[in-house]
Amino acid sequence: MHDGSHAATLEAHWGGGASPFGATWQKTMMWIFIVTDGLLFSGLLCGYGFLRMASPIPWPVRSEVFSIPFIALMTFILISSSATMGSAVAAARLGDRRKAVLFLWATILGGAAFLGCQAYEWSHVIHEGARLASNPWGAPQFGASFFVLTGFHGSHVFSGAVILLITAIRSGLGKTPPQGVEMAGLYWHFVDLVWVFIFTLFYLV
Amino acid sequence: MSETIQRSPYRVYWVTWAILLVITLAMLLAEKLHMPRWFLVAFLVAFMMTKAVMIGGNFMHLRYEHRRMTLMVAAGILITSLILFGFITPESWHVLSSLVR
What we know:
A: flat; B: mainly alpha; 2 domains
C-alpha cells in the first residue's frame, strides 16, 4: 500500500514514463555524457581563471603571443564544420545518404584543417620558448593554461574527427542509421561549443 | 517552425552559421574600440553566451527537445560552473594578496 502511494507520488512528480526526457535512451545518454564532459571543461576554465586572477606577475597580452586573425580563422573553420555537420544530420534524417556522407566528409575536412592550424600554433608557441611551467611573455602559469586548455580541446576534436570518419564510412555502406549520424553530430557541436568559451575567455578577455 | 524545417531543412544551420560569424567578427572588432575594460569583458561574455545558446539551440536541437532535457543540460553545466567560479574567485584574491604581501 505504502509502495503504491510512493510510486504514485513519483509518477505525479516525474510523469515521464519510459522516456522522461522525451528522447531515446541513446540520445539521453549522449546528453548526459556531454554534460559531464562540459563539466570537465568548466573545471579547466575555472582553474585557468584561478591561475590568472591569483598571479602576481602580469598575464601575457595575447595579441603579442598569438596571431588573433589566425585564431579567428580557426574559429571560422570550426563554426563552418558545425554547419556542415548539421546539414549532414538533416540529410540523414531525410534519407539522402549521398548528401549526408558528402557533408560528413566536409566536416572531417574542417576538423583536420582545425587540427593542422592547432599543430602550427603549438609549434610556433613552443619555438618561441613556451613550456608548461615557463614562457618568455609573463606569468609562468600562462603556458600550462594554454597547453592544457587547447590540448584537451584538440584531443576532443581529434576523437570527434575519428568518430566522424567511422560514421562517414559506415553511412556510405548503409550501416549507420540517421540516429547514429545525429549522435556523432551532437559530439561535434559540443566540441564547437567548447571552443566558443576557450576562444573568448582565453584568447580575447 | 517545424514546417519551416521541413520545407528547408538546411536553412536553419546556414543562417545560424552566418549569425555566428557576424558575432565573432563583432567580438574581434570590439577589442579595437578601446572601450573600458569592464564593458569589453561584459560585451564579450554576453556575445559568448549568445553563441553558446545558438549552437546548443539550433545545431544541437536543444530548442526542439523536451523541456526537461534542456533544463538538465543548461542547469547542469551553468549552475555547477557558477558555483565553482563563485568559490574560486575569492580564493584567488586571497592567494594573490598573500603572494603580494
